[in-house]
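Open question from group meeting: does this chain pack into something compact, or does most of it stay loose? Before anyone orders reagents, we agreed to write out a predicted structure and look at it together. Recording both the input and the output here so the notebook holds the full record.
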Amino acid sequence: MTLRTDPHLALVRPVRPLTPEGCQECLQLGSPWVHLRLCLTCGHVGCCDSSPNRHARRHAAADGHPIVASLEPGEDWRWCFVHEAFV
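Structure tokens returned:
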């Protein structure tokens, strides 16, 4: 499902990845990740739901930053964790 209007889009800001080299928490833990997600509110880089630690989802829940973008080369999409939908 794709939401054309999502109230959480108001939280999207121009951001730069805080840790462009990888998932912030996984880098600290020495843990692997599968794909990277960029928080569009603060620039946090977290790992995807297919990764063992799911740091992007954890960050969204803990910090109230629900919209992420894929940080994978060639991908251009955004996801809302609250609505479980592309936005």
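Observations to bring back to the group:
The radius of gyration is 12 Å.
Helices lie at 24-29, 55-63.
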